[in-house]
Batch of 3 targets.
Target 1
Amino acid sequence: MSDARITAGRRLAADLNSVRKERGVSVKDIMDATRLAENVVEELEKTGLFSNPMFNRVYLRSIFRSYAGVVGLDEENVLAALEEALDGRYAGSLRQDDAGEAPLDDSASPAEEAAPETGEVDTQETAPATAPVPPVSAIPDEAQSSGRVVLLPNMRGMWAAGIAALVLLALIVVALTWVLTRDDAVETGNETGATVPSTESLEQAAPVDRPGIMLPDTLQIGVKAVTEPLDPIRITLDLEQEFLVVTATDTVVLPVQPSVRFPLWVEMDSTVAFRFLETARFEREVENALFTVEGYELPADWTDEAGIYTVNRDSVLALIRRTSDAP
């Protein structure tokens, strides 16, 4: 990472801090309007968030755009200044555009490191500046984690879908074989004059013993952005685990604590997968998401009056039984 980018990020952060104070906007005003954590806002005004390598270019654009709206700066000017800083050539254009003042020198900025650029995300709520934040990631609201979280290409979901397709194909073959065998038996019985029992009498004489559906100890749930990016959806799980997020430039792992709500940014047509024991809850953006458990698509009407989409083991089991007509 170049010294020019670090210096440019500090200068831009100092300009933002100066403009905010001149306009009488408090840090709490920024937090209330953008739902950013206090330490994220503070770090934004120290280093421009360049010191966290997981705040990529799209994250930064989204955060800077929201910040500009609250402070009353022109969004295009702020984004242009951000691009200059990322390229290591910001020289105070934001202050000049805002008040016609000369650029600030390097001493007005704190000493922090800058961040690389990747991914794309909208601003709502992000992770503490002291912990890595993946391009499509989740950081607990109540407890900061030093680990990392990831967006899956949902390989396990793809495997599950493939296995489900093979099972379905096998069932179709068995059903066709049974129908053809039954038809042959009926024709043979008619030719020999033998009495072929009806389907009803066969079922009464030999009832089918269908075993009940058994779910695994932990269930895999997938969340896919189907109508627009999820920016972010908020998730609460009951199982401690690690997420693996894979992007074009990064592979990051972050442990997730049970019963701690965290935001998760998901790009359009991307899917994130994770596990739960009994219950998983989702808030915000649920109307733009498609949920699947163990390859079964979940209905959209599981959202309650509070806007919380709840998935639990019993409701999943009931859905699978209805879908497969199993006991």
Target 2
Amino acid sequence: MVRTRRLLIVLLFALSLLISLTPAALADVQQAPFTSPMSVEISPPEGAPGTVVQVYASGMAPSATVEVMLAPEGDAPVHSYTMEANAEGELWTTLTIPSDAEVGSSWVVIAQVGSEVATSEAFQVQDAPEHPSPCGPTYVVRRGDWLAQIARTCEVSLSELLRANPQITDPNRITAGQVLTIPAVDAPPEHPSPCGPTYVVRRGDWMALIARACEVPLSALIEANPQVADPNRIFAGQVLNIPPVDEDPTPPPSEVTATTQVNLNLRPQPTTATTVIQTIPAGTTVRVLARGPEGWIFVRNGDRDGWVAGWLTTIHGDVQTLPQRPS
């Protein structure tokens, strides 16, 4: 009995000792910091002298002071500055490859925190393109930018811009500070369109009218814009690529006009069941832009466009040469 009591006392003492030590052991485990190895990534990995490179570094302590350096591979840095990591131990920044960097040379970005150092993959300097974009080899997205506007500013097509930036998974979502690769501009066409290489759709435009104004076949305009899923549905502000004009284009048809025989209502649709935009006085001559169903014609009177009953006008010119406008 005594022996059993002594054994029970020893067991209780051991248990109490274990319980008292466990929180301290857990505290030691919780206090042990876990950090991933420091790393540096750059984008793009190659380009001409003067390319803006996007830098992403991670694996640092929160709010750590980081020295960011740009250096020829295997040589001393030529540019260095300090930054502070964010609360997740990351930082984003940009560096510019020197404009006098030799073609064929390699450059690296180095991040250093105390004695810990991480180096990026090498950036390979390539020849500048034969027809560089006015934006240069890269473009840093600014607040309020969107892809179609950047393509127009940089004089490249939207499809070319997307091909050069496969990291963009949603063309409608780009962020300020993002670095885009800008492809070379195509050589100027031998027979440029009077509209230029691109055209910004305006309210009231439709594909056939744009093709006529830019002196290109409708089929060529549609082929040059594969991003337009439905040629019958375009919207104001959309940017279209305009192909070059054929060497011996068919002369554009002469202007077609119409003189109203009576006071005539200008309407938004080719039917009398719609509202009246304005009333055009009898004897007014207006420009005919397109033909429509059942004798209706689409006209421009001053700065207003709309439909009028063509059978109540005297038409001057061949209305059949004008594009057919969808109602």
Target 3
Amino acid sequence: MRPGYYWKEALAGMRRAKLMSLLSVSTISAALFLLGAFLLVTINFRSAVSSFKDKFEIQAFLAETCDQHQALVAGSYIREIPGVADAVYISKEEALRRFRAELADKADLLQALETNPLPRSYRVILTPDQRDPEAMARIAEKVQRIPGIEDTEYGRDWLGRFYRLGRLLVMLDVALLLVVSLASVIVIFNTIQLTLYARRQAIEIMRLVGATDGFIRRPFLLEGMLHGLAGTLAGTAVLYLFYRLLSANFGQVTFFTAREFAVLLGFGVWLGLAGSWIAVRRFLRRLPGGG
């Protein structure tokens, strides 16, 4: 019968403090919505980075004085560098053809050129674990030292900004996680405290007749967990509506996977449990005979 008693008392506690319960659930809902929104931005950013990573390459330009034999030797040296998957030779003609394709309808502008100004180069394809700014800078430096290589290019500036933005998003997520946790725990703490003080006499009588602290504590812990569960469900429901709106207008946007949603839901329930546990522990210690 005890599980039924705990549920009955937890739901009764929420009914007795309707206004505070609503405030608690609303606070958790808003907090989890905000946290979820930032997490989704981070998830979608990381997804975009993963899709772009296949295009993270180094362009190694050959010197004009480099003959064909030296160019082939340079290519073999590039392929021997750890972290390099392959090096694809691009002739002047191939470079011009690709440039024309990129210009598309403006390709006619190149008709005025009397000679091909584009240099020969190697497309340096990297292994997946080397497609980050630090690794690419290290490999580009090694490529640059190879005889016959005049210059290297891999978009160092924009790639660095790209990764700094990713780190900034993660820092914001962590900071928001701490703020959300603190705010939610404080609100649930105050809500459970009010319920406890409203039932102070009944709790004291229960203690006198031999009820353990665990028996007294469990309905209030369950009540806090219900606050966390309801708030998280409401917050993620609103977030899902915004996701549907964005995906309908801006194309493919990633939402939480089932596992990520379960973690977020568990986090909300944990917040409710933490706030209620602190409130009950503090209250029971202040009662006559409390430890």
